[in-house]
Design goal:
Elements lengths: L6 E2 L2 H23 L4 E7 L3 H17 L2 E2 L2 E3 L5 H13 L5 E4 L9 H5 L13 H9 L7 H12 L8 E5 L6 H10 L3 E5 L6 H5 L4 E4 L17 E4 L3 E4 L6 E4 L4 H4 L5 E2 L6 H20 L4
Parallel strand pairs: 1-12, 2-3, 2-4, 2-5, 6-7, 6-8, 8-9, 9-12
Antiparallel strand pairs: 10-11
Length: 294
């Protein structure tokens, strides 16, 4: 995994390639099934970042031919109302995927809501049944961001077998499922986090270093082994004091690390670009699987 430095894992380019393939796949399936695939994204409140994500998802759905059944609720909607909506969508044959946009405003039990989604429509891969399938190595709906990381590695023919992968972050959204996926691909996996003693020393052991902690530019050059593959899952806003404007940055200090890494994902244009596309792919997988066409 050594070689030329500053090689970019272009998630944006791969996302476009996958979306073109999904569009063609839907065009082949739709005459057999008699309807397009359907995705319902439920958003609560007015979080600007969430609104941007939901808008991006709806735009991507339209591009590939997925029908959107999204709903936007005020922040004072009740847990019971959201639960009832999820039950309606579970029973709606036009809907193949249901996603609750996280984070929810304070006061909601997001885990309880996620468990109300029918597992075969859980396109975020967060239901306990789907996470259990991931643990057991069984086919099923898998978490979008970790899935996107694995697809990027595969696209660039970066074989993880026998490599030491260090995942910094232990969330149920990214860290834990990605560790399982890497393990299934025969990597040796270490999960590190904020309480790991001498985190820098642990990170320096990594052939594949994944940063998924949500802390701006936390991974510095001293934490990266020369020639490592560096995957930056973080999306953070950093205020530029000279201009007063904010820009997107990751959990990795990109400018300091890029010359050390053999491959690195940019922010934006890396893993984030893959997440929405994996959501679309999960929706189409559910659509086809329901009709025995996987």
């Amino acid at each position: 995994m050594s070689g030329n430095t500053d090689r970019i894992l272009d998630g944006k380019a791969l996302a476009h390639k996958m979306q073109d393939a999904l569009q063609q796949h839907i065009a082949q399936l739709q005459p057999q099934i008699g309807r397009p695939p359907g995705l319902a994204v439920l958003m609560v409140g007015d979080n600007p970042a969430s609104a941007a994500y939901v808008g991006g998802k709806e735009k991507a759905c339209a591009k590939v031919g997925i029908r959107s059944f999204g709903q936007h609720f005020p922040p004072d909607v009740s847990q019971e109302k959201l639960t009832a909506i999820i039950h309606e969508l579970n029973a709606d044959d036009r809907v193949d995927g249901i996603l609750v946009q996280l984070p929810l405003p304070d006061g909601f039990d997001s885990v309880a809501l996620l468990h109300e989604i029918a597992p075969h429509k859980d396109v975020d891969g967060l239901h306990a049944l789907n996470l259990g399938k991931l643990v057991r190595g069984e086919p099923g709906l898998q978490s979008c961001t970790p899935g996107g990381v694995m697809r990027l590695l595969a696209e660039y023919q970066l074989d993880v077998r026998g490599k030491h992968a260090v995942v910094v972050g232990r969330s149920i959204l990214v860290g834990k499922p990605l560790a399982l996926m890497l393990l299934a691909a025969d990597a040796t996996v270490t999960i590190a986090h904020s309480r790991t003693p001498d985190l820098a020393a642990v990170c320096r052991q990594a052939d594949i270093l994944v940063a998924a902690v949500g802390r701006t530019q936390m991974i510095t050059a001293e934490m990266v082994k020369p020639g490592a593959v560096v995957i930056d899952v973080g999306i953070n806003r950093l205020l530029d004091p000279t201009t007063g404007k904010s820009r997107l940055v990751g959990d990795v200090d990109f400018d300091a690390v890029k010359d050390l890494a053999s491959w690195i994902t940019p922010v934006p244009g890396g893993v984030g670009a893959m997440t929405v596309t994996m959501l679309l792919e999960n929706t189409v997988w559910s659509y086809a699987n329901t009709h025995g066409l996987v």
